[in-house]
Amino acid sequence: MSRGNEMAPKKEGEDKNMGKVAIYPGSFDPITYGHLDIVERTLEIFDKVIVAIADNAEKRSLFSVEERLQMAKIIFKDTPNVIVDSFKGLLVDYVAKTNAKVIVRGLRATSDFEYEFHMASMNRSLNTHLDTLFMMTSKDYFFVSSRTIKEVAKLGGGIEGLVPDLVVRRLKEKFKLPFTKKKKIGWDD
Ligand code: PNS
After folding, report:
1. Residues 63, 56: Cα–Cα separation, whole Å
2. Active site residue 154
3. Domains of the chain, residue spans
4. Domain 20-141 class?
5. 105, 146, 150, 170: the active-site residue
6. Active-site residue 35, yes or no?
7. What is the pLDDT of residues 146-169, one digit of tens each?
8. Is 118 a catalytic residue?
9. pTM of the model
10. In this predicted model, what pLDDT tens digit does every residue of 115-150 receive, in sequence order?
């Protein structure tokens, strides 16, 4: 006789109220359309994505963790299946407090692989129940990184279309740049 779902043990990585949960950790300094693309595609596999912003005092960031949190919360305000949070310390310890068992990371190029492979292997050795899922970045964003976005923005280059408008504005505020839309240079110019 079937005992029904209510008697079934809760599976790892699933939350009774949340379904399948994935953690998408990173510095997000700042968040880019490349990140948003990964979140969007992760939501096609998982029911919930926790965007976990690392609060790492060792790493010099342009935006404080509060600023990064605020930007991400605004950006995902209309996406109910995305939770924005921050964490300090080891990622595996943070993941253990949630009900996720999968970490999602974007891979842009083979050059990302070595760092990601080390990180995933270390996390797996710290917690053997954890897996890292790598997602190839979409072709439109494979050249976009937070580091290059900051560099281009600081030097006054156009970053529109690569990061949300809110991030464009915040970068301009940081670098005290004028708020005029910079035209992209094309062959016809
Ligand atoms: O966007 P980033 O900077 O590539 O993200 C790296 C991040 C934050 C995911 C990674 O540095 C991390 O997990 N930091 C938390 C500390 C930790 O757990 N370190 C051990 C992993 S090797």
Report:
1. 12
2. no
3. 20-141
4. alpha beta
5. 146
6. yes
7. 999 999 999 999 999 999 999 999
8. no
9. 0.88
10. 999 999 999 999 999 999 999 999 999 999 999 999
